[in-house]
Specification:
430 residues, mainly alpha, three-stranded antiparallel beta sheet, 3 strands, globular
């Protein structure tokens, strides 16, 4: 009898142990991560590179022409390229040699001609995305080199625009700006956070040059319409959300890559915990960003403080949270830059609409509502405070501004450090 009882107790104890072990397995960070990924899939969220960068048909892919343009640019002497960038500068460090500029522009024309053909295609695939999930760390080192070349292409197009202006071809100058803007848009076809920030930089170069081009000269209505159409084709919210979705895909790929290594068996739970923390934070951030600008700055600040206030008594147990915190801080720092991108874009769009209005009416309007609906579908809102962009008609021009990152309307005050104090301003002297 005692033997049977002992046997029954042993069986019960074994069953309980197996049950508890099974429950622990199901509730382990690794299994929780698998369930979370399945949930994201069911909700239609991208969880792999293919979801965000699917293969494209060859007749829609401009990649071969981008590669050709980059190779052609590489054959141009660096001195010629630097002379064009010097020509573009508002405060050139060296005197401008017009004959040298003309020769340099002639040298870069084959590359620019090929680039113009490349941007006529809707897609580009300069990165070999098939290698991403094999080794995301090595892949990340390969994707970025062409960014510097695209920034250089933007500066060369702007130098070409200035040259065209000096030759009396303002419509040609506007066409150079259109190509630079289209190149900026095309770059978003391979979304990463760094891609988005490079897009912002390229747009800033084009917008600042456009202001200088139009400061004392005018283009035709046809050129303005083409420029306005290209500006209206931008979808900054979509590009930004996709870039952060790719960051989430990258984080997941890195976690899977590390957990697949035999030497990681003892820390797989820590890696999975980091991924879970990252996914939870990213979901909150994306929910805010999908609402569009103006972003909910108060909620974003509360989210940042909440993450900072979390404490773990043991550093090892808190590693996942620290990794997630580092990622989130990077994403949060990119959000004001996205708002600045929106502001530059909206200021440029309204400025061109104002130029068009003046072309057709001989004067600038009293208010921005006069631009609706012929030139703009509605008056764009300030991406920082959600109010209409500020506008003032001047005696011989206009002033247009956003309140900027400090969220304070300074009446169109333009400062060198506008990201700290003052407004983001677009002025026209005529």
């Amino acid at each position: 009898m005692k033997r049977k009882v002992g046997l029954l107790l042993a069986v019960a104890f074994g069953a309980a142990t197996v049950f508890l072990a099974w429950r622990a397995y199901l509730n382990s960070p690794v299994q929780q991560l698998k369930r979370e990924i399945e949930r994201l899939k069911k909700e239609g969220e991208p969880v792999s590179v293919r979801d965000l960068v699917p293969p494209v048909p060859s007749h829609l892919d401009g990649t071969p022409y981008y590669q050709q343009a980059i190779a052609q640019l590489g054959a141009v002497p660096e001195r010629a390229l630097l002379s064009l960038e010097n020509f573009l500068s508002p405060f050139p460090p060296q005197p401008i040699n017009r004959a040298e500029i003309a020769r340099a522009l002639q040298m870069v024309q084959p590359a620019l001609k090929t680039l113009r053909h490349a941007v006529s295609y809707p897609h580009l695939r300069l990165a070999d995305w098939s290698r991403f999930e094999e080794n995301p760390i090595a892949f990340s080192a390969d994707i970025f080199p062409h960014f510097a070349r695209f920034r250089r292409f933007t500066r060369l197009l702007m130098a070409e625009a200035f040259w065209r202006k000096q030759q009396g071809d303002m419509d040609g100058a506007m066409e150079s700006c259109v190509i630079a803007l289209r190149l900026t848009r095309r770059l978003g076809d391979e979304p990463t956070l760094i891609t988005f920030l490079v897009q912002d930089t390229m747009f800033a170069i084009t917008a600042s040059t456009l202001k200088r081009l139009l400061d004392d000269k005018d283009a035709s209505a046809r050129a303005y319409w083409a420029l306005l159409a290209e500006l209206q084709a931008f979808d900054i919210d979509c590009d930004f959300v996709r870039s952060l979705q790719m960051e989430r895909v990258t984080e997941l790929a890195l976690c899977n890559w590390w957990m697949s290594k035999p030497q990681s068996i003892l820390i797989r739970g820590v890696i999975a915990r980091a991924a879970l923390e990252m996914l939870a934070c990213m979901e909150q951030v994306l929910a805010i960003l999908r609402q569009g600008v103006p972003y909910d700055w108060a909620t974003l600040e509360r989210l940042r403080k909440k993450l900072e206030s979390r404490q773990q008594p043991l550093a090892f147990l808190g590693l996942g949270r620290e990794l997630a915190k580092t990622s989130l801080e990077t994403y949060l720092k990119s959000i004001p830059k996205a708002a600045q991108f929106h502001a530059r874009h909206r200021l440029a769009m309204v400025a061109i609409a104002l130029k068009l209005y003046r072309r057709e009416h001989g004067r600038y309007p009293e208010n921005l509502q006069a631009l609706v609906p012929r030139y703009l579908p509605q008056v764009p809102l300030d991406p920082f405070d959600g109010k209409p962009l500020r506008y003032q008609r001047l005696k011989s021009g206009f002033k247009l501004w956003s309140v900027g990152p400090d969220l304070k309307d300074d009446g169109g005050l333009k400062t060198k450090q506008w990201w700290l104090k003052g407004d983001m301003v677009w002025t026209a002297k005529r």
